[in-house]
Prior knowledge:
- The protein is α/β, with parallel strands linked by helices.
- Helix content is 43%, strand content 15%.
- It has two domains: 5-252, NAD(P)-binding Rossmann-like Domain (Rossmann fold, 3-Layer(aba) Sandwich); 255-295, no CATH class.
- The strands form two sheets. It has an eight-stranded mixed β-sheet with strand order 3-2-1-4-5-6-7-8, with helices on both faces. The protein has a two-stranded antiparallel sheet with strand order 9-10.
- Strand 4, helix 5 and strand 5 form a beta-alpha-beta unit.
- Helix 2 packs parallel to helix 3, helix 2 crosses helix 9 (223-229) and helix 5 (117-144) runs parallel beside helix 7.
Amino acid sequence: MAESATSSSLEGRAAIITGAGKGLGRAYALALAARGAQVIVNNRRHPGEQDSDTSAQQTVAAIRAAGGTAFANFEAADAEGAGGRMVQQAVDHFGRVDIVIANAAMSQASTFGKQSLDDFMRIFNVGFLGTLNLIHAAWPLLRAQRHGRVIATTSSAGRYGNHGLGAYAASKGAIEMLVRSLAAEGASAGVRVNAISPYGATQMTAGHLAPEVAACLTPEAVAPMVAWLSSDACTANGQVFVAGGGRFRRGFSVETDSVAGTDMAEVAQTLADMPGRPHPSSNHAFATLVEELRAGGQIP
């Protein structure tokens, strides 16, 4: 993904990135810092770790070694008040918040019937509540300054589901719909809200990818899209961008045209054979249905 110097510059911008100690989040932090952003690097501290041993501090050290500015944060993203404390840390160090990248997540494969509700909610909360906490805390500042870039992390599992990943998929699906809703709310205030759906070889995917596939799907290959979404050059809003191996897609929801009928089995089969079309919003999807009802004479 080619970027001009102007489009990629993040000079003077302040970013918060969760889950940035390793993998995709680390790649995002390094990419933003290389483009001039000041970064709060969040990654939860594991039991027994000293500050200097944490992955967050190691990412900070790498940014500083390259001449950038960064500070570590050791909050668990889904902890009560964590989002507010991260935002306050950014304000204390940088005087502002411009970019929020909610990346922290966890996954633990288990079929729904074998998974306790506590385990389900633990996975769901790290992904969704961790994202919600941070965005909710930063939202008033971004709107007040009439500028902001919010990037949340979704997944193909959040759009299509996946066997044994119900909790993870539910969190990612919720994030995707939150992104689309906040994009509508933030647009008038200059806040752009988008989602990244990355394919990356990380600790979470270890053992699930063939070696040659893992070698291609580096976190660094996703980072240019995240850096662009963080920049003033990005005017996209409410979109989902899929990235992996240096290739990119746009993800969206579709619905078929409507059909009328009283035999539901026949209706279902007809719908199964019809192509879908994207809708930019729920209002648009509803409006097209009303148009079809009018055209069919059901609404005068």
